[in-house]
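Forwarding the complex inputs:
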Amino acid sequence: MNTRPMPEDLAQHFRSFAAYLQSGETDHLSRVFPGADEISAAAVYRNGFLRGSIEALRNSYPVVEQLVGDEYFDLLAENYVTRYPPQQATLVNYGKSFPQFLEQQLEQHGLAYLPDFARLDQAWLRAYFAEDSTILSEDNIEQWQQAGNDIENLVATLPASAELLTLEHGIRTTWLTLKSNKTLAGNTRIDAREEHLLLWRDVEHQIRVRELNRAELAFLQTLGKNSTLAQAAVSALELDAGFPIIEFFSELLETDVLAVNV
Amino acid sequence: MKTGQRFLKNDLPLHAGVGLKPEHFSDVENTSPKEIWFEVHPENYMIGGGPRLRGLQAICEHFPLSLHGVGASLGGAELTDAKHITEMRRLIDLLEPVSVSEHAVWSSTNGVYYADLLPIPRTRVAMQNLVDGVNHFQEGIGRQILLENPSNYLPVASEMDEPDFLVSVARQTGCGLLVDVNNIYVSSRNCGIDAVAYIHAIPSELVGEIHVAGFDPDPNLGEQLLIDSHASDVAPEVWHLLDVALEHFGPKPVLLERDDNLPAYAELLKERALAEQAIERLKVKSGKCNNEHETYA
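Prediction (whole assembly, two chains):
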């Protein structure tokens, strides 16, 4: 915060206005609009603040909104905005703690899986807006080998868009259905089971979601720490002695999941 | 782009532009008139990368771009924070906009961003505060800005009229003015000011851009309170004020703003054509040629 000295009258203008915007109590407004006979028009400012912040949450958590409906989403979102108002002038990343907030509100909404849907919505958004990375290609690998290097010693990494998630519920299929605006089947079930997911943005800018087993997750987690392919393979083989390293590595390469380590 | 001044100055073409949303990116290249320019809110592009940023970069290769900020809080209790200025600089370096603009309002205090354009008093003290805010921002981004007049819903504490207030800020900071005639109309209806007198009180040489947009009646108070919603077509009264403004200022770049209830891009282009025609009428009248760019003090 870049505070600056100012006369008390002006400082009071901002304090009073902010107090009204946060609480909705019009008592604060006599100093802000001293010439106004009727103060009800001031609601336009508070509505603007709430609407802008709620819209930002709606854009960030579209599947959560589909699950609970727009009216209930507005209720949850307004509650969140009042407790955790935006802190930056860009709203594209607003609501980072919304999944945790939904956990705290479990008694109110009663949907144990809702925070996981919020985590997946959030991971999609992070992947969508992440920095671009230079994707590792087969040519890169050929060059590495032609230079006399062993592929086992190659240090590849994950692109900036890659997100590794461990959720408490198996929601991937349901989330994908809702994300593509399709209707859920009547017998849709969401089980309380651990689910590991990888999200990433491919070179066509499509966000892809793949379920991982524990060995695949370990492989990718190790790669994400600037390790060699050999080190990543060892971490996967510790969990699954039959882990198909070559097939998995080929799939990663073909689907733009590996980035050049810079 | 003009150089040799303290800051790089704004250099919009003397044509009509439209506010651009990612929903319309795919329509832009093939269906836009060649003289069009675009304006975006930079806050929506303060991201690492991906299709939104790449899409805008691609459009910038073919069309002039204006960055129209809504979050600098120039008249607020604190100066614009360093992170916001760094993000603005990054976008300016990346996108090379022909113009950068902001609002004569506040929106942040004490670490909270209130996501709206909030009014400041029109007092000498508040004016100095805004002057400091504009100077700090212009220094930070290394660019001259255009400063937009706010929409008013209630009368604020006032020692002077709004045009005098803004003109004085422009003179003290070297910024230009962005005259939003929809805001003037909305303020005239809500607070009883004379819209035409307002426009006539602004010297042409300070004006770098004009905005037109749609308003809507407040859902609770109806026609008693008009909201600068950017969610409707431009009203006939606002088109009339645009003519008044162009008549007074001479030909200026005009932007059609639309932020909500977004129509198809082709519909926006039809509405933009009305603004282009208004500029062209003035150009013919004043003898300015088509390729001229805006110049102002």
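The mean pLDDT of chain B is 94.
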